[in-house]
Amino acid sequence: MELRPFCPLAVLLLAAGMAGAQASGNATASPQALQEQVEKLAAILSQEESALRESQLRIEQLRRQVTALEAEMAGQKTTAPAEAPQREAGEGAARLEAEVSALREQQDLQQSEIATHDQIKVESASRFPVKLTGLILMNGFYNSRAVDVVQEPTVALPGGGATGFSLWQSIVGLDARGPHVLGAASSGDVRADFFGSAAQSSYTSGGSARLRTAHAELAWNAARAYVALDRSIVNPNAPTSLTALGEPALAWSGNLWNWIPQIGGEITVPAAASSRFTMEAALADVPNPPPLNSSVVLTPSASLAERSRRPGTEARMGYSQGDKLTGWRFGVGGYYSPHQGPDYRFDAWAATADYRIPITSRLELSGNAYRGAALGGLGGGGFKDYIWRRADDTYHALDDVGGWGQLKGRVSERLELNAAFGLDNAFADQVRPYAPVGSGWYQNLARNATFTSNAIFSPTAYTLFSFEYRRIDSSSASGANWKADVYGVAAGYRF
Question: Is the pLDDT reported for residue 76 higher than 90?
């Protein structure tokens, strides 16, 4: 709204006009009447002048208030930019320091991913991408007592210890991606190491190449079909170790680790927002347990499972929630495989359970458990599927129970701590009648327990260092008990 100043001249002209109009309209008006009208106009003019002065005073007051308000606002604008950064810097100093530390920890990983895109690709006959990968690993060991394999012990034995180091657990591998087939993405990988001659370490100073694992699969959105050489699907979890790769950590102490050929498929059924059910089944070709007694001659022959002419079967049902690598996971499984000898037969079987529980964002509990019989081919049963007594050619499938659990702590992106315990317990009352006095440890072994703890440090994306302590407690059916303390260090370069 615009304020217009009052004009006294306009009032006078208006009064004069009104007087002239009345004079022309009433020529007979007396001088006294005219005088009264002039006095009235003068009073009106006086009132208007007073109102004008009051209006001018109000306008001046408003101007002063506006000026003061503008000055105050201008002062806030000049001081606020100087005060705000100081306040924000004080409040965010701790947060910025933590974020910088986290960014530094992720920098090596990001550089690794960038280098992957810049590297020269390995050319394959199919012209599809192939990536060479691997780990050059040196592991040193100190064994307080005699063990089965000095480079990576799994069983304690009577006798003196040993100290040394080797590179036999180094791993090389290839990862490949192929074309889409029937609407599914195809991929494959293979891993090999040099741990094949570890059991005959006294005869050679170098390890022999050995196929470890292999996979080829077709993957749809909610299903996949595969062929694999890997641990059984009823044993999906694995303990963490950098000094135990030739045979995985807790092998023969509750970890059904043995790598077996499999043909299978898996279906995933989504449940809630981040949870899902999985159903997996496979056919398995289960090998015989490793013949660790020196009298056995290693010659290629059909395994007891292959002689039955019926493949082994395995199945697992699971529920998982959250991230596939670190979220909740529970599962139950079953395994069955008929075995046929020259004049005897028995069935291998197992009922299993597995779990992974993220206690906090940095703490995780995981493990597997089983109850079954004739589990030597999977990595249980004290290296044995069955017990044989030479005197009367009596065979008996060996019952077995065991499992393992691990607590993992992720201190940072570069450092993790692990502690695990595993137990494989073949039934001693079954072993004892078939293990005559004087027989070797292989036939006598009934119970094998291992505790292990390690720290794994990765200062860069390519280098790994670890220290591990292992306590092995092996018991025989005849009552003898052997213990060994194993100290191991490892240094690896990953490519």
Answer: no
Contact between 459 and 447 (Cβ < 8 Å): no
| Helices 8-25 and 31-118, axial angle in degrees (round to 10) | 140
Strands 275-284 and 312-321, bridge-based pairing = antiparallel
Burial tier of 229 (Cβ tally within 10 Å: 0-12, 13-18, 19+): middle
What's the pTM?
0.73
CA distance linking residue 237 with residue 354, whole number of Å: 7
**Residue in the block written with tokens 């008996």:** 396
**pLDDT (tens digit per residue) in 415-470:** 999 999 999 999 988 888 877 655 678 888 999 999 999 999 999 999 999 999 99
The pLDDT, as a whole number, for residue 119 is: 52
Burial label for 138, CB within 10 Å (0-12, 13-18, 19+), is: middle
Q: Is 254 left (phi over 0), alpha (psi -120 to 50) or beta?
A: left
Q: Residue 248: which of 266, 261, 232 has the closest Cα?
A: 232
| Residue 326 CB contacts under 8 Å (≥ 6 apart), including other chains | 358, 364
| DSSP E strands, 411-480 | 415-426, 445-457, 463-476
Q: How many residues does the chain have?
A: 495
User: What are the beta bridge partners of residue 175?
Assistant: 131, 189
* pLDDT tens profile 297-337: 444 578 889 999 999 999 999 999 998 888 999 999 999 99
Angle 455-459-464 (CA atoms, 0-180°, nearest 5)?
A: 55
Q: Rounded CA gap, 129 and 36, in Å?
A: 114
Amino acid at 139: N
User: Rounded distance, CA 106 to CA 461, Å?
Assistant: 9
Question: How far apart are the C-alpha atoms of 80 and 312, rounded to whole Å?
Answer: 76
Q: What is the token pair recorded at 62?
A: 């408003």
For residues 298 and 314, give the distance between their C-alpha atoms in angstroms, rounded to a whole number: 28
Distance of CA 360 to the CA centre of its chain: 13
281 contacts 264 by C-beta, under 8 angstroms:
yes
* Whole-number Cα distances in Å, 54 to 2, 58, 65, 371, 434: 17, 6, 17, 104, 123
Provide φ and ψ at 78, rounded to 5°. -80, -30
Q: Retrieve residue 251's tokens.
A: 């092998």
Sole residue written with tokens 């995933």: 268
Q: What distance in Å separates the CA atoms of residue 337 and residue 310, rounded to the nearest whole number?
A: 8
